[in-house]
Amino acid sequence: MAIVVNIDVMMARRKMSLNELSEKVDITPANLSILKNGKAKAIRFSTLEAICRVLNCQPGDILEYIPETKEETDHL
Fold first, then answer.
1. Which residues does 51 contact at the CB level (< 8 Å), separation at least 6?
2. What range(s) does the HTH cro/C1-type domain occupy (predicted)?
3. Could you give the 3-state DSSP secondary structure of residue 73?
4. Which end of the chain is more exposed for a tag (fewer CB within 10 A), N or C?
């Protein structure tokens, strides 16, 4: 997938565990783990907003676009 989730980077910068973040965001540790490991297909804006609020960051600090193939960059 071309979207990389960097929640683990922000969690490390804030010295916050997965369980602590999941409690503060009100999301299950299992669902947060799926998101953290890049296996999620989508994220609700309300969840993204809560994560950004708790980690004191911007969505771009968490989500990153990395083209997978040359064709993906040709149309840019």
1. 7, 21, 25, 62
2. 7-62
3. helix
4. C
pLDDT by residue (tens digit) across 5-57? Answer: 999 999 999 999 999 999 999 999 999 999 999 899 999 999 999 999 999 99
Token reading at 31 = 């669902």
Q: How far is CA 5 from CA 8, 13, 21, 47, in A?
A: 8, 15, 15, 14
The pTM assigned to this predicted structure is: 0.83
What does the DSSP assignment read for 18-71? HHHHHHHHT--HHHHHHHHTT--S---HHHHHHHHHHHT--HHHHEEE--SSHH
Domains along the chain with CATH numbers: 3-74 (1.10.260.40)
Cβ within 8 Å of residue 15, ≥6 positions away: none
